[in-house]
Amino acid sequence: xxxxxxxxxxxxxxxxxxxxxxxxxxxxxxxxxxxxxxxxxxxxxxxxxxxxxxxxxxxxxxxxxxxxxxxxxxxxxxx
Length: 79
Prior knowledge:
By secondary structure, this protein is of the alpha+beta class. It has a single domain, classed as Defensin A-like. Helices cover 18% and strands 34% of the residues. The chain is built from one helix and three strands; from the N terminus they run E-H-E-E. A three-stranded antiparallel beta sheet has the order 1-3-2, with helices on one face. A hairpin with a 2-residue loop joins strand 2 and strand 3 (54-62). The longest helix has 14 residues, at 24-37. It is elongated and about 50 Å long. The model has no long low-confidence stretch (mean pLDDT 87).
């Protein structure tokens, strides 16, 4: 069985993009909506810079927190 690459993420996953938005508030709302649409667990907007007609945003999703059950350590996982 092929293992998912997401199962090998040690801590967090960042998604960075530029969103067309009327203002900073709309950009933040769209970034949060994007995290939900991508099914990112615990998605947080960690960077937002509004410039003219949109915003550069970075969304961070913590896949594993310290002390979590790390999927790559499970019995039978391949390297």
